[in-house]
């Protein structure tokens, strides 16, 4: 059985991004980017939805064409994604896909990922894709849940509240780490709950 890791970057108030802010809220540092590069070099297959595919493939290809808009570390991290095996779940995208090493799955994502966990050749982790991750967690398919928390509150400009619509989930911490003196990694094993602990069934 292959492992599935849900992987998010998040503001302190639970947003995936914020209008007008740069990527990583402008707070990525060399230690974090080095760790991120190491994650991308691993044996994981990346899972994502159509919106994340469009955004990240464009950024990866732009970074490969010109590093003018990216630091050296950012460009290396983005271009490195081209070599990583990827699966995108979408009913709107069409093949052939322009991002190398990407497979398109048009059917039910939960069913497809359950099959990949059972019969796949490598562990999996997600890239962005808030609604996909929510569906996979609610279906009980997620083995690990990892956040890198960025020290900003974007209550006015935040976009994509990550945890809206989630079931109740108990989280058992398995690891934590600080990057660049300001970013906090938190890693958990999730258990989807039917209700608050101790509530009558």
Q: What fold name stands as the CATH topology?
A: Dihydrofolate Reductase, subunit A
| Sheet with the most strands, sense and barrel status | 8 strands, mixed
Please state the structural category: alpha/beta
Strand order of the largest sheet: 5-4-3-6-1-7-10-9
Order of helices and strands: EEHEHHEEHEHEEEE
- E-strand count: 10
Number of domains: 1
Low-confidence segments, given as residue ranges, are none
Distance between the termini: 31 Å
Q: What is the CATH class?
A: Alpha Beta
Proportion of beta-strand residues: 25-35%
Q: Can you give the mean pLDDT?
A: 90
Q: Which term fits the overall shape?
A: globular
Helix content: 25-40%
* CATH-level-2 architecture: 3-Layer(aba) Sandwich
Please name the fourth-level CATH homologous superfamily: Dihydrofolate Reductase, subunit A
Number of helices: 5
Q: Over the alpha carbons, how many angstroms does the gyration radius reach?
A: 17 Å
Write structural notes for this entry.
- This is Dihydrofolate reductase family protein.
- Pfam families: RibD_C (PF01872).
- A hairpin with a 3-residue loop joins strand 9 and strand 10.
- Helix 1 packs parallel to helix 3 and helix 2 crosses helix 3.
- The protein contains five helices and ten strands, in the order E-E-H-E-H-H-E-E-H-E-H-E-E-E-E.
- It has 201 residues and is α/β, with parallel strands linked by helices.
- The strands form two sheets. An eight-stranded mixed β-sheet has the order 5-4-3-6-1-7-10-9.
- It has a single domain, classed as 3-Layer(aba) Sandwich (Dihydrofolate Reductase, subunit A), CATH 3.40.430.10.
- It is 28% helix and 30% strand.
